[in-house]
Amino acid sequence: xxxxxxxxxxxxxxxxxxxxxxxxxxxxxLGPEEPETLREAMRxxxxxxxxxxxxxxxxxxxxxxxxxAEEALPTAVALEMVHTMSLIHxxxxxxxxxxxxxxxxxxxxxxxxxxxxxxxDALLTRAFEMVARRxxxxxxxxxxxxxxxxxxxxxxxxxxxxxxxxxxxEGKDVDLTTLEYIHLHKTGALLRACVVCGALxxxxxxxxxxxxxxxxxxIGLAFQIIDDILDVTASSEVLGKTAGKDLTADKTxxxxxxxxxxxxxxxxxxxxxxKGALAPWSERAQPLLALADYIxxxxx
Length: 300
Ligand code: GRG
Known about the structure:
mainly alpha, Farnesyl Diphosphate Synthase, 16 helices
């Protein structure tokens, strides 16, 4: 019965086990890199911790689609590489100009700007190599679909497009539609790629893929709303990145437009929508349902 599965699902244990598996795969994914300075910069950011939400989503979606998580591990690593690249580039002086990330000095503070850009570039290209050349157990058709999805999420229709509109909006009055555009692209596109790519590796039906896109839209926006709230309410120590940055950079955020209370309500409603999309799969979707709740309950 659904309720029984739900109550017996130990999300804490699931998160710990998934993170351990992902850390091991990330560690094994690098090298040999030449030259050594580049290797050091790539490792510094990729192995700096973080919640590993994106690769966990990927593995969970693969299993929901009926695949084995092991098959999706290289894709999960690739998604974390693209995410890490985006954090390195986002922190650069030409972008958000930040000194702290994942509780440590940012890449450009450690290695200089040029090396930080190049470490990001190398992680982004390695991500595609992970899918195309280091996924021995997945058919070429499925890998091609994953490459397509990953390209969309990383490029102009995703991360880059969202970042451009975000930069262009600084210091301006931004309405809710533009704010949503920024976050659906800058944050939501990669989260969508995580579940879609995992599901593609697992051989998902068209119906499940569509439901996962709806799920991803909900958790993507909710994730960003909580990110905006935490920027105001949490400390830099807990976040591992500079708190209060949105205000300093004069960015429009959900709390700024809606207030804290309404922002939280909106995040809860979006998580409800996300979970609703997976209702027909509820028994096997326990990890994804719990991950959706984790997004609004997280403190960092
Ligand atoms: C060069 C192809 C290319 C793209 C880069 C810089 C950029 C374009 C986009 C910025 C994307 C960005 C940094 C979005 C913010 C997403 C976000 C809320 C990150 C924080 O994610 P968490 O909380 O971080 O999951 P951890 O550290 O836990 O992994």
